[in-house]
Model the fold of this input.
Amino acid sequence: MVTTSTLFEKHLSDEVLVLVLGYLTPKELGDQVPLVCRRWRELCYDDDVWNTLDLYKYKNIKEAQLRHIVMQHRNIKKLILRDREDLTDRAFVWCVFHLPNLKNLDLSFCPQVGPKIISAIAQFCHKIRNLNVNGCPGFDNECLLILTGCAELRHINFSECDTITDFGFSAMSTYLPQLHSVKCDGVIQLHDEAIEGIVLSKCDSLTDLQLDGANLTDEGVQMLSELLYLRRLTIQYCDELSDDAISGFSQLRYLEELTLTRGHNFSSQGIQKAMERPHHFLKKVLITECSSKPTLCAPC
Done:
C-alpha cells in the first residue's frame, strides 16, 4: 500500500515540501507533522517554514508551546501576537529576547503592552522595522520615548492609543526622523504642535501618515504640505477644518492617496484647488461627508 507520506518521499524535493509545510498552522507543525516520518520532522523545523509566526487565530497555543516553537526557530522575522490576552508580559519579553532577528512585530490589541515590553523590544530587537501596537491601552508617551532607541524602526502604528500627547509624538519625530510610516488615527490628544514637530524634524523619508483631526486647526494641517514626499495621507474627523486646511496640498506632488473623513466644511471648489497642480501619482481621493457631495472618489 502506497501512503501519502511515501509519495512525498519519492516525488517532492526538500524545497517543495518546505513550501507545502509553510501553509500549515503552528499547532499542526508542532504537534502532528513531526510524527509523520523522520524527514518531515526535520523539514518542519526549517527556517523557511518559520519565517513568519502568526498566532492570531490560534488561541489554544499555550505559553509552554510558544516557548518551544520560539526556541526551535530563533530566526523568525515576523511575529504576530495580535489580540493575545492569555499570555503574560513575561512571556512577551521572553519571546523578543530569544528572537534577535525580528523585523516585524504585531502586538495590536494586547492589553499587556506597556513600558516593560517596549523596553525589551528596544533592548533585544535591534533589527525591528515594523511595530504595530494599535489599540494597546498601555502604550503611552514613555513607550514612544523608549522606541527612539530603535534605529532601524521604519513603520509604527499606535492608532487608538489615546494617552499619546504632543510631547510623545514630537519626541518620536525628533529622534526617529527615518520613519516611513506613522499611523495614529484615534489619538485624539494631538494638536498643531505635533504637526509642527514632525515638520521641523524634516522627515524627508515620511511617505505614509494617518492622523486624527479632532483637535487640529487649518493652520496645523496646512503645515503638512511641507512633507513633500508623502504618498498616502489620511486625516480622520475633519469636522473643524475648512478649505484653508487643504489649500497647500497641491505641493504634495508624489501623493497617491488622500482620505479625509467627516469633511463637512470642504467644498468642491476647495478640493479642486488643492488638486490643481498635476499629481501624476494620484490614484484616489476619498472625502466623506463633504458639504457638496457625501463622498468624492477621484482616481487618477
Q: What stands out?
A: Residues 63-72 form the longest helix (10 residues). The two ends are 61 Å apart (CA to CA).
